Amino acid sequence: WENFNNIFMISALLGTGITELKTYLLSAAHFGDWLFPENVFTDQNHNQLIKETVRSKLLEYLPQEVPYNLKVELEYLDLEQEGSISAVVIIGCDTPKYEKLVIGRGRRIKTIAAEAEQALSDAFLTNFRLRLVVCGKQM
């Protein structure tokens, strides 16, 4: 293990080794200025953050390869004067089978939209309205 400075034996079950790891990390850490101001939560742009949040919910709720075969595009984004945000995200499906899986009798797409909307409200610290539109191959 020549490429390691230290090796720590830790047990989550017994809670052993944690103190040694903390001590090492604190001694190895370097003081310096923060790379971003404290009010900046991410360096991703708004569009990317919205698309990745929707994609993460698709990964959570859809089986196997399905989420990887979907195209997620931000169609519309509006930063409203009162501070809220509205967005429309298009989910492109290559096959009718994927379309049916994404929609899932209407309940699945509603759940995905609601959870993505809540995650985006938490991320942007404002009211976020999200609409998901599932489209077939003609997209």
From TrEMBL:
Gene Ontology molecular function, alphabetical: GTP binding; ribosomal small subunit binding; rRNA binding
GO cellular component assignments: mitochondrial matrix
TM spans (from-to): none
Highest taxon of source: Eukaryota
A biological-process GO annotation: ribosomal small subunit assembly
Protein name: Putative ras-like gtpase era
